[in-house]
From TrEMBL:
GO molecular function: UDP-glucose 4-epimerase activity
UniProt keyword Transferase present: no
Organism: Methylobacterium symbioticum
Record-annotated NAD-dependent epimerase/dehydratase domain positions: 5-218
Source species, domain of life: Bacteria
Top EC category: isomerase
Classification via PANTHER family: BIFUNCTIONAL POLYMYXIN RESISTANCE PROTEIN ARNA
EC number: 5.1.3.2
Transmembrane segments: none
The protein, known as: UDP-glucose 4-epimerase
Keywords assigned: Isomerase
Pfam families: Epimerase
């Protein structure tokens, strides 16, 4: 069994990864700005900042066989863009240097489809040049470049991930789920014929573990094979929920203008990436990761979103009371969308 470091181990993906690693018998150290959500005899939870090189050097001095880099800040709520950039970029720089200095053989890092701020009429390949439209996407791209600079020191695997879905995934999804739970109209920009790929969290973790075990360096896009249209996906969740909600399309041009204005006035949780991509097609080509790692996805977009909704419906009261948890483990603030809810 291996000794492994997980950054962002108190977050949504990092927390699931820590659980799986412990279940497999590994010894895990988690570093996060928030305390570890659970205790285990083989888990050391460190509350700390990955920009702290001395802290990382001390942690990694014990001899580790792999690092999983899940830590990432979003510029939401009280987190400023400057703080997000410093954590995502300088934190990755500090982690890469500490990993190299400690002689750890493998680092697996999660990147994002936010490297692009436009839709594609075909699957996106690993060699398509990134075109981020906002600071978070730029920070993830910078992180990729930093890891590439350390390719001679350890096997650096970058997995470019779309939206990660599993039981407990909330954030902006909680807004959709609240509308469905209350039987309100579900508003969709455009006719909903676009396809936007998700990834089931357990499928992503399976790929991370394959990359670590094989020390497979490189950049890989990942995602579900079965990507229904967004109208079909939402309709599936509504039917599974037994909700009276119905889907209503909004004209794309006016809706996007309203989203831009709301963001500019700081009235909405939806930013430039969201209003650019809300009616756009985006899927990753997964040929490379399947061939290199022997990886295969399991759930469709519709299946994983229904699973996430069932968790939300069963835990609404507890979710509403959550404090001091990561952004994806709590419901996003609706902002001006709450006004839309009351006319739905």
């Amino acid at each position: 069994m291996a000794r492994l470091l997980v950054t962002g181990g108190s977050g949504f993906l990092g927390g699931l990864l820590v659980e799986d690693l412990l279940a497999q018998g590994h010894t895990v150290t988690s570093i996060d700005l928030l305390p570890a959500p659970s205790r285990h005899p083989r888990l050391q939870g460190v509350v700390g900042d990955i920009r702290d090189r001395a802290l990382l050097d001390g942690i990694l001095s014990g001899g580790f066989e792999g690092v999983f880099h899940c830590a990432a800040l979003l510029a939401h709520g009280s987190v400023s863009e400057a703080e997000m950039w410093a954590s995502n970029v300088e934190g990755t720089r500090s982690l890469a240097a500490a990993t190299a200095a400690a002689g750890v053989p493998s680092l697996v890092s999660i990147s994002s489809n936010c490297l692009w701020g436009r839709g594609f009429d075909r699957p996106v390949h690993e060699d398509d040049p990134p075109e981020p439209c906002e600071p978070y996407g730029l920070s993830k791209w910078e992180g990729e470049k930093i890891l590439a600079d350390h390719s001679d020191a350890f096997a650096a695997t970058v997995i470019r991930s779309p939206t990660i879905i599993e039981e407990g995934r909330l954030g902006l999804l909680a807004i959709l789920f609240e509308f469905i739970a209350e039987g309100r109209r579900v508003w969709m920009v455009g006719d909903g014929s676009h396809r936007y790929q998700f990834i089931y969290a357990r499928d992503l973790i399976a790929a991370m573990l394959l990359a670590w075990r094989q020390r497979r360096a490189g950049i890989f896009g990942i995602g579900s094979d079965r990507v229904d249209t967004m109208r079909e996906t939402f309709a599936h969740v509504i039917a599974e929920a037994g909700s009276t909600s119905r889907i209503v399309g909004l004209p794309k041009g006016p809706a996007v203008l309203a989203m831009r204005a709301a963001h500019g006035l700081k009235l909405s949780p939806l930013g430039p990436y969201h209003y650019r991509m809300i009616a756009a097609d985006f899927t990753f080509d997964t040929t490379r990761i399947k061939a290199a790692l022997g990886w295969r996805p399991t759930l469709s977009n519709s299946e994983m979103l229904a699973r996430a909704y069932r968790y939300y419906a069963a835990n609404q009261a507890e979710i509403a009371a959550r404090r001091n948890v990561s952004a994806h483990r709590r419901a996003a603030d609706m902002g001006v969308i709450r006004a839309l809810k009351w006319i739905s």
